[in-house]
Amino acid sequence: MVMQLHLVRRSVWLACGALLLAPAIGMLVSDEVNWGPEDFLLAALLLGAVAVVFELAVRASSSLAYRLASMLTVLGSVVLIAGNAAVGIVGNEGNPINRWFVMVPIMGLVAALWAKFEPAGMSRALLAMAVAQVVASVMVFVLSGAYTFVLMCVFAAVWLCAAELFRKAAAEPEADRSLD
């Protein structure tokens, strides 16, 4: 089991590195790919966040539910932030109203820190993220008339699934959750 986990951890880091190399290789073979240093920096930060969160989740708990919830949360956050940075949710990526959507993962991170990454607190943090996601969509509609509700409900569903997994992890006996 330990050897398998080590292989999975190494694979996550290698996959993140390969994903970061893909646009660099694409720039060598095609003029269609045109990334600047800021694009690579953002991609490195987001992919690094995926790998680091995976490492932290593996170290924080042996609970499969906790680990899955952690990865679902970070992957949803990365997709939301990267999509918003790349093309924007409302208009283009430069539209200032898109900042509302980036606030949801930031709020989730603050709530997770407040909860000290304990599964019950993380479940409540993800419930708050789901509500904030819907509220942000409603506010964007009121302020700009942009209809983002369906897309934001998909992200809210991701947060709700992660909240449920964290709730299940919290319900597990402590001996089943810890690595000690």
Report on this model:
This protein is mainly α. It has one domain. The protein is 80% helix and 0% strand. The protein has helices spanning 2-29, 37-60, 64-86, 99-114, 119-144, 149-171, 174-177.
Please render the helix and strand layout as text.
Blueprint: H1 2-29, H2 37-60, H3 64-86, H4 99-114, H5 119-144, H6 149-171, H7 174-177
Helix pairs in contact: 1-2, 2-3, 3-4, 3-6, 4-5, 5-6
Instruction: Please write the string of helix (H) and strand (E) elements.
Output: HHHHHHH
| Class computed from helices, strands and strand pairing | mainly alpha
Beta-strand proportion: under 5%
Report the average pLDDT across residues. 86
Terminal Cα span: 15 Å
Gyration radius, rounded: 18 Å
Number of strands: 0
Biggest pleated sheet = none
Total domain modules: 1
Percent helix: over 70%
> Would you identify the regions where 5 or more consecutive residues have pLDDT less than 50?
none
Shape: flat
- Total count of helical runs of at least 4 residues: 7
Question: What is the structure about, briefly put?
Answer:
The protein is an all-alpha fold. Helix content is 80%, strand content 0%.
